[in-house]
Amino acid sequence: MLNPNKGIKDDTATTLLNTIEDATKLLEEVMTSIIFIWWCFNPGVALEEFAKNRVGSIILTSGTLSPMDSFAEELRLNFAICLENPHVISDDQLWAGIVRVGPTGHALNSPYKTRGYVEYQRNLGNSIGKNDVCNELNH
Question: pTM (2 decimals)?
């Protein structure tokens, strides 16, 4: 609002200064409340800490860690003892496929919006359990 005792030029400068001061105060408030979150998706960073703290043993198990050389490099660890076993089943004991629909005929898609629905969960459970896929496989 213009002050009748000041000229337009003086009043504009005062308003501008007040605006800058208000913006600065607001910026200072915002800057003190910013939280910086850093996610590290490199397991080697955490495992280096284990090594620094002299953790005696780390047991990693999985069916998909091969090739072990590149995996160990990714973890930034040297494994003193490493056991790699061959596959424990033969090819004829493995079935791989895509099951598009469950026993009720509903699609077995799992987007976020439907994965919590009881009907979807039942359909998924029944398709891999007692009613469908497992019954079709040779035992």
Answer: 0.35
